[in-house]
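Journal club prep — side note

Before the paper discussion, L.F. wants everyone to see what a predicted structure for a comparable chain looks like in token form. Sequence:
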Amino acid sequence: MKYFLLAASFLVVFSGFSANNKDREFGVQVNEAIKVVSLDGSIGEEEWADADLIEGFVQQIPKEGMPATNRTEVKLKYDENFLYVAAKLYHGVGEGYVVSSLKRDFRFYESDAFAITIGPYDDGNNGFMFAVSPYNVQMEGLIHNGDRVSDVWDNKWYSSVKRFDDHWEVEMAIPFKTLRYTEGSHYWRVNFIRNDRKNFERSSWVPVPLNQRIQGIAFSGYLNWDKPLKKPGANIAVIPYTAVNGSKDYRTEEPTNTGVAAGFDAKIAITPSMNLDLTFNPDFSTVEVDQQQTNLNRFELFFPERRQFFLENADLFGDFGFRQIRPFFSRRIGIATDSIGRSSNNRILYGARLNGNVGDNLRVGLLNMQTADELSVGYPGQNYTVATAQKKIFSRSNIAGIFVNRQTTGEIREGSPITTFNRVAGLDYNLLSADNKWTGKFFYHRSFGPTANIDPQAFASHLSYNTKKFNLQWNQEFVGEDYNAEVGFVPRRSYWRLEPNAMFRLVAKPESKVFQQTFQVRYDLYKDQDFGQTLDQNVTFAYRLYFKNTSTIQARVFNEYIYLFRPFDPTRSGGKQLEAGTDYRYTRAGITYTSDSRKLFNYSSTVYTGEFFNGERLYVNTNLNYRLQPFGNISLYAEYNKLQFPEPYNSADLWLIGPRMELSFTDKLFLSTFVQYNSQIENININTRFQWRFKPVSDLFVVYTDNYLPENFQIKNRALILKLTYWINV
């Protein structure tokens, strides 16, 4: 603990060296519109004559700092309701485009696209990203932690595009009501970025080093308003839904279950920077199914949150701690567990979430959710409360606190493992230097329950130094045996972890077909709580080769040591288990090749082979993809694990196969079908989803789901859902 506090003190002092380093070399004046903007995708000279021209884009890749090969021009203006953006993007005559599909929220790095990034709070960490493809497909996202984009956030804005022989033009209208900002602002952070995918070139107005993410708020100029921004007026949206469903479990004699559900979400802007989200009887039946995984390790797998209500400003609640030490994980809300450990849905009755900024330097969040009593499984209703605050210090760093409370509101049956409450309180210090070379996190968390515990704490430190040649990282973790974050994600406890990591980056010459090479060594050590017994040890050597045609080659060698502190079956198939107290050291090696992703047909393949516990493992996965540009994709993911062990232990051949088809008939009509065959859990799942976006953020969904036994295709269960949502501005 003393080393943790010593290092944290060092980083607090160190981060001060980067304070007050505000660079205004890149600035643009934006004036109130004199002429009305007609959003037709054509940038008329008279219409945009009163706006300053923004140009001079420079490459991030492949030739960092050099002028962009193809010119990009941008203009800005605004009125009382919208920020308007116009861009003209030139290219060679007849070059064409790389476009993944017509579906909203495309992957920016995989498509020709133009984007604006906005940081209304000047904290260098949080903002918005709005992007458009040459086919007027929109993508919007929330930027958090400086350069991470959550593209599952949805909101209402407008755009129009026109394509010409040698360029394409885009006009965007972003409502001030969509954004979060401080009333009376004089300036925002801003950058404009272009992904010229077909030419393997990424460029921006404000230069971004090639070792950084191009959407990083740290690398931005300033959008200077001609007068202080006013409050945008009443900003209330109600999104009601109604759903009809039918389902049948064919393993029982119960009749088909049918039902009708209704509920709503509401978004209320308390101030331009503070938003209140409400939900009543929410329905998540149309959320895309999780991509299944073959689990060959001893711990719980992580599946990301996909429910829309939990996604806006999700980092304010879910980014505390580390990836494997989360004090709050929203997917724990809405799950009931019976007395023998089986999970089922736990209906959410209502919820509220207040989140946003108080000035430029303070973010706050408050979440409360109430679930129903699930009498059939003996699971009482629960109330979940999460309170957070994040205060900016120095140039971009912040200190943040969190409090999580799960409170049982229903009757607890005799013999039930459910307790009356579980609480976690914690403090995080997030380091981000002005130039983003130094990043890190230090935290201390503690859990509380109805009974006294000896060591209910977790603390950790992470420090990263990232330059064009080197990426050096240090990670240290401790999780006490009694640390119990029931509404979090903590798959293992009672350990120390040390994880140094070093990578060397070698950028090729401009005339080379190679873009860059990286050499990496990583050491990962787990010790028991007394720092005596080694539990896990992993040494990894990795080499990666990146070509300018977007193909890559990766080779890795692993040497692993595992001590089993409880019995374990490596195939997880119910066979004879390896005994507790035994240990194993083994070596594996493998190679991955990814083809040119700009081509209509592209693929990737990985092969690993070597020892595995007391046997051997062959791992092969292949991902085939054909792009029906611009209407969608057909892909096939296949994973095979051949596990061979000596008698009397089980050997196994495990398959995970997932064909997927995504079609966009227009930019408003979408059809996706996802089939998953998982031999480890003996299940075939079919999920088909039709979506009609008849108005912005207003949808009609039809979702069909089947589950089968693979041996004879006997149906396990089947469900059909029809759901209508409608966005209403009050």
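L.F.'s comment for the group: Confidence is low (pLDDT under 50) at residues 2-6, 12-23. Keep this in mind when we get to the figures.
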